Amino acid sequence: MTLQDSITTALKGLQATKSRSALTVLGIVIGISAIILMMALGSGAESLILNQIGGLGAETIVIRPGKEPSGPSDFGSTLFANSLKNRDVEALSRKENAPHIVEVMPTLVVPGSVSYEGETYQPSIIGGSVDFFSEAFQVYVQDGVTFDDADIRQNANVAVIGAKVKEELFGLSDALGQNIAIKNRKFRVVGVFPKKGQVGFFNFDELVIVPYTTAQLYLLGIDYYHEIIVKAESPGVVPRTVNDIEATLRETHNIADPKDDDFFVVTQQALVEQVQVIIGALTLFLSSVVAIALVVGGIGVMNIMLVSVTERTREIGLRKALGATQKDILLQFLLEAIILTGIGGVIGITIGGVLAFGASLIVQATFSSDWTFVFPISAVVLGVGVSTAVGFVFGIYPARQASKKSPIEALRYE
Amino acid sequence: MALIELENVEKTYDDGTQALRGISFRIEKGDFVAIMGPSGSGKSTVLHILGFLDRHTKGTYRFEGKTIDDYSDEELAHIRNQKMGFVFQAFNLLPRATVLENVMLPLLYSSTRPSLREQMAKEAIEAVGLSHRLGHLSSELSGGEKQRVAIARALVNKPEVIFADEPTGNLDSASGKIIMEILEDLNEKHGHTILLITHETYTAETAKRIVHILDGKVEGDNGVNQRRRAHDSFVK
Ligand SMILES: Nc1ncnc2c1ncn2[C@@H]1O[C@H](COP(=O)(O)OP(=O)(O)OP(=O)(O)O)[C@@H](O)[C@H]1O
Ligand SMILES: [Mg+2]
């Protein structure tokens, strides 16, 4: 008997009990569509959350002075630590020290307020590089321009301000080219950020960015930085780059024992990993619920196959009398079970896909988030694989029962 | 070499029933043998053993000179498919399949090329005179027609021997006559060996030989002196 004959025979067998087969397969349909829905929602949620926390970019690394805080009481110490200096920036910028670093930006936090013609406002004043911020957070100056490396080198008195700051100080009138005062020093507004709200660690609406050189020299009068932010080539090289940074800084700081480090490195990696662990755990939990559903569905299939084997005792006996071997009968009934659950799997994949698409539309409409509909090929492969496997596992026992029937018992059966 | 050779064959069922208590007879190629005996005497049991549908518990059964203990289940299934045809009292057709599909069934389990199957099945159906019913579901046929389909199915692999267990038992005499004419024809014109179980003397007398069985033993094994023609035997 060719495989094609076996499949045709199995299909005819199923056709004879169409509505019963349809009901039997319902459990599998539900189980598989749940898998597909879950996988699609899971990967959708994962990419959404990772996008949100990835505001600071997974390839961004922050270096802070002092010891890594191990408790709340330690926290203040980092602000006063003065270990990160320009030599560190220069050392990190050298390719031979850290080949995968693309850009290095020192930052400073300037306490205080800004004022313009009698209006005063208390934003977050950061000494840094606008280009770096734009790259890292994907927020670009809308009105005007950024200040560039030349401005930074020349300690220029220029500033890029957030939308809220602009509104508070200037109202509806134009801010570009106007001079705002920070600590009695005049800064020319060269650019305004669009309204973006919180992105990563920063509320861009409340931000004033001035060149870090200017902030260090004229606003704070210090010779160190509060933070150095580094951008690596890609998220994949982050762990390697962290090692490079630690080695480089230990050298410039003459530190032999890592315990004596006067700086510490923060990456998004840990957070990303945590989210992945949480989503993974959630998926695992839901998977086990689905697995139970599939087992129940599989038992349903086994039950109906056993009924079918009993009902068709006569047919089995006849086929054996006409020359069917045990293998032929086994294959016939096993194929029936596998085709049955396989069809359930295909229907389940379709329904699951439609549900996942519907869910993505609802999420988009309700939370106006940039949730993307993900329908991974792996889900299709898994759906087909799992459903046929269920057919195999729960079909093998009834099929064996069928194949072992003796022809005379079967023919005698009334 | 006899086609079939039984030597002191015994059969005890699992529940202890001793259905056969030492049966011996031979059937040559081309023979037409009727087995007669009262109900429960062991006729069907003999036929099941001869057709490899069941195994005997003692004695020797040689088919084409080889004892069946030499064969695996798979080989027995293959021989059954290639060399044996069965006709049962209860027809045993697949009700939801057409006449053609029913007759093609044994070919499915043989190595016959798929392209040849339909042609072979049509020839067998032609031989029992049912070509006009090819596409009918077997459940739509009369009893006599069903049994003719069963014979076509038994024929389709051109078997060495056809085993028929009371093939006319469920039929009226007119239909029974047609069945017997077909069997007679198969034996005379096509050389098929036929083993027929019946409890009607006038049916048995269309055979060349009658083996009488009683309580699981052969009581008599005689040639038929005055063979009836199937055509005449049912004119009651
Ligand atoms: N599977 C079985 N298990 C136990 N006993 C059986 C089995 N099949 C048949 N028998 C017994 O074996 C004996 C012979 O049965 P068998 O069917 O061969 O009789 P038979 O001659 O064909 O009768 P009938 O003319 O009624 O068909 C009977 O006593 C029967 O009850
Ligand atoms: Mg009987």
From TrEMBL, chain A:
It comes from the Bacteria. It is a multi-pass membrane protein. The chain crosses the membrane at residues 21-42, 277-308, 329-362, 374-397. Residues 21-247 form the MacB-like periplasmic core domain. One of its GO terms (cellular component) is plasma membrane. InterPro entries: ABC3_permease_C, MacB_PCD, Macrolide_Exporter_MacB. Residues 288-407 form the ABC3 transporter permease C-terminal domain. Pfam families: FtsX, MacB_PCD. GO terms for molecular function: transmembrane transporter activity. Keywords: Cell membrane, Membrane, Transmembrane, Transmembrane helix. It is found in: Cell membrane. PANTHER family: ABC TRANSPORTER PERMEASE YTRF (PTHR30572:SF4), MEMBRANE COMPONENT OF TRANSPORTER-RELATED (PTHR30572). Belongs to the ABC-4 integral membrane protein family. This is Multidrug ABC transporter substrate-binding protein. It comes from Candidatus Yanofskybacteria bacterium GW2011_GWC1_48_11. The lineage of its organism: Bacteria, Candidatus Yanofskyibacteriota.
From TrEMBL, chain B:
SUPFAM superfamilies: P-loop containing nucleoside triphosphate hydrolases (SSF52540). GO terms for molecular function: ATP binding; ATP hydrolysis activity; transmembrane transporter activity. Keywords: ATP-binding, Nucleotide-binding, Transport. Transmembrane segments: none annotated. PROSITE patterns: ABC_TRANSPORTER_1, ABC_TRANSPORTER_2. It comes from Candidatus Wildermuthbacteria bacterium RIFCSPLOWO2_02_FULL_47_9c. The keyword Chloroplast does not apply. It comes from the Bacteria. This is Macrolide ABC transporter ATP-binding protein. One of its GO terms (cellular component) is membrane protein complex. Residues 4-235 form the ABC transporter domain. Gene3D superfamilies: P-loop containing nucleotide triphosphate hydrolases. The lineage of its organism: Bacteria, Candidatus Wildermuthiibacteriota.
